[in-house]
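Dig into this one:

. . .
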Amino acid sequence: MKVIGVLVIGLVLLLLMVMDKKQIQKVLERLSVYWFRLAFAFLVLFAMNIAGGFVGVYVPVNIASGLLLAVLGIPGVAALCTFAVFL
């Protein structure tokens, strides 16, 4: 496990040395947008869980649901609502 961690860190450092400043900024910008979407997805999941509790529908708040919402957006909300109602 430690070997894999060292290899991953070494690979990331190697990539950072090869890339120039604009490429690093572009990668970090995309990463920050992804993390914001993931955080907002968990906020939406929490709100759906609270609202669903009033009508008796349980919406799970877990990493899989958060990733689904972060990647798909509005279709992800529809998919989670469908899963919550029919499962």
The chain is about 85% helix and 0% strand. The mean pLDDT is 89. The helical segments are 2-18, 21-55, 63-72, 74-86.
